[in-house]
């Protein structure tokens, strides 16, 4: 983790490629020892390699102490709304509705939870398996001392339990809980349900009580516990959780749920361990609980489940391979040419004792000019590194497989959404040495989709194919500008309406770019604004509505844009919620920030939104124009905006310091006429006649007759009827189009999507996208139309 800096708004740090703002690092979290929040965050950052394997894939519930262990605590299940978008989460259904639980995959997530004072982390004994709860992969017994007994008695009961479990092939490992007692964990094969394991643990507790009634109790009643150790079997219930190994405890001192050796349990003076002691032990002994964490054998279960031994020549994992952590020597890779139902190539990278695998239909890209789709498949055993042969018909993956190239690789970055590696193939092989980036674009785990991009040289990512753009030269201009400006700064272009938000510390006022007050139309935004804090601010952003796939939809937003009646607004806001994606700040407190560089304004904006919750959102910033365009294309976004990170904020003016790069051609147009509908549209609007303001007048650019919903047609008819006039507002409208036109005053602006401008200057394949109430006719640009004219 990069060392934090110093600033009045907290410290912005980099944690393995994730940016986090850390605040109140000097706050005392453990009053008895003076342990600060900064020390808590440092502990979780350093213990992450040992802790994460034991919580990965499990929902994490937290106990938070915002004011330290001397203050109030509260139990948190659902992930707080202001959590970073990159933090993994998984929904669990409850009687009150589904709740999103955090799922810790990396150190950055662990540091974030520590930042919000989540001292204790609790997890169940099962992991998510595909879409829901899997079967438990470990058994736990919580040995809880009653009044009059302590750790020594718990250790005695632990040894008795060890004998019983050992007789049935389970080898338990002890953990001093950091509170009063001892936890015993035993690894399970995942063949039994939580109910079955809970019942078994209950019988085990009863057996211990029957053999040692003077010291052991299995009943829940607290009145039976004085002078005895309660063997709590209930934490194997699928709905129960246990303090995670290596988690801090919210006690007087910063004690930890610490793995121990059986020899230690024999020692006199056995006690709970503090976090500094645990870190020292890890440096010397490593993770004593490592045998409990899932390894290669667990990762390979999907592979084994899809194949039958003897029916396919493919290799199957053996016991030796299941313990191979893949870190001895340099990591290996293989690319196999797979003539299955369709020819594709399989890229496999050795990691943690298995081969992480992707199917790449078009093979590894030969240069940086194109990105290739890669779909993640199940991990494969290491012996697949040299597998070649024919998988029989009727078997999974049937077809002939050959080795295209194989060798070693070095990973510069390995995150759940991005991998950068340099691979060196065999001498004389087709690959040579090449550097690649794998970037996840959708999904998670098996069947997730990635882009495989070939990078030119260390530190430089070459450009993939540019999608179709309104102006072909724009990507080159954007790339050149980004190079000239230094570090690239690329933001996604969201399909919404631009809005300025003025926050006075108590109320948020929203205005469209035209100056129209649109506050009342978006009550969910004003309701969430309290998270901006007491400091006044002026913010710039985009109001968007998402479709079912989580993509911005201007069509859906139109259902909200024109409503004025409170009852209609309330009804539609429940059906079509919006978000305010904030990308700039003009003022904070009494300070005008417009002269500051964009990079500094962004840091201030991140601070202002540190506690903000959805629907107030801070969208990401990318560092590569072409890769961002490809990602925008995959996500079906409108395009990107390339900005000079040194630029000031320029009110109401266009600037080359902000370059829009659209994936489809769109154009703002002025409505000047209606052609009456026929057939199914009789009595309604058939098409709109539209134009673009030029020096010669409102230049006619064609008709738009598609892209309308029935509701939009009715709305347009209502707003255009009062604008009816006998005067033709256009220059250059053909007689055929004017023959039955109903003219309207050119007061309203809409947006259309189109293929191109024809040589005569009209829109080809135009499709209506919606009204633009945030744009006036005078603001409609003719530059694209003029540049397309011969």
Automatic annotation (TrEMBL):
Pfam families: DNA_ligase_A_C (PF04679), DNA_ligase_A_M (PF01068), LigD_N (PF13298), LigD_Prim-Pol (PF21686). Its EC number is 6.5.1.1. Residues 571-694 form the ATP-dependent DNA ligase family profile domain. PROSITE patterns: DNA_LIGASE_A1, DNA_LIGASE_A3. Its cofactor is Mn(2+). InterPro entries: DNA_ligase_ATP-dep_C, DNA_ligase_ATP-dep_cent, DNA_ligase_ATP-dep_CS, LigD_ligase_dom, LigD_PE_domain, LigD_pol_dom, MtLigD_Pol-like, NA-bd_OB-fold. In the C-terminal section; belongs to the ATP-dependent DNA ligase family. In the N-terminal section; belongs to the LigD polymerase family. This is DNA ligase (ATP). It comes from Microbacterium flavum.
